[in-house]
Design brief:
- There is one protein chain.
- The longest helix has 14 residues.
- Helices cover 36% and strands 8% of the residues.
- The chain is mainly alpha-helical and 157 residues long.
- α2 crosses α3.
- The protein is elongated and about 55 Å long.
- About 4% of the residues have low confidence.
- It has two domains: 58 residues, no CATH class; 68 residues, no CATH class.
- β1 and β2 form a beta hairpin.
Length: 157
């Protein structure tokens, strides 16, 4: 997941930095985050928070975020969901595989995220978690994807 949101090559260079800094020695989780952050800073990768802030939400908590609702332009007024999702969640999504996937972040404590640049109708499918590089899914959207596969599976090629 980290390699996806900072870029695979940046991740490799940061990992090499980490291994070289701690060769024949002990290391802690924060040592990895520090090496990756140094590389991110050197290569001017724009992130919404530090590597440590993002990754600690994944490594110090049980389970993973379960994104249960379709991302809507506005939250339903009758929602009774009171859960605060304490993760930084990198979002990747597309409704057109001829274009690059769009990226955004669900920040710590954010229970919804308006995505106003989808450019689709309310009944059209959206693929989230493009190429399944992150750990979340949207159960409602799977039904729309299933229907599209039945109607015309070539749309996903």
């Amino acid at each position: 997941m980290c390699a996806d949101f900072i870029g695979f090559e940046v991740f490799q260079r940061g990992l090499t930095r980490y291994l070289n800094d701690h060769i024949y020695g002990n290391a802690y989780q924060d040592d990895l985050w520090s090496a990756l952050q140094t590389q991110v800073d050197l290569e001017n990768v724009n992130l919404p928070a530090t590597i440590k802030e993002i990754m600690d939400t994944w490594t110090y908590k049980m389970d993973f975020p379960f994104i249960r609702e379709r991302f809507l332009l506005r939250k339903r007024n009758d929602s009774t969901d009171s859960i605060i999702y304490p993760w930084w969640v990198p979002l990747t999504y597309t409704s057109d595989f001829t274009q690059a996937a769009k990226r955004d972040w669900l920040t710590v404590g954010q229970i919804s995220k308006p995505l106003t640049n989808l450019g689709i109708a309310a009944h059209q499918w959206v693929i989230f978690n493009v190429e399944q590089r992150n750990y979340y899914y949207d159960a409602v959207n799977y039904g729309l994807i299933r229907d599209q596969l039945i109607a015309d599976h070539q749309r996903f090629c």
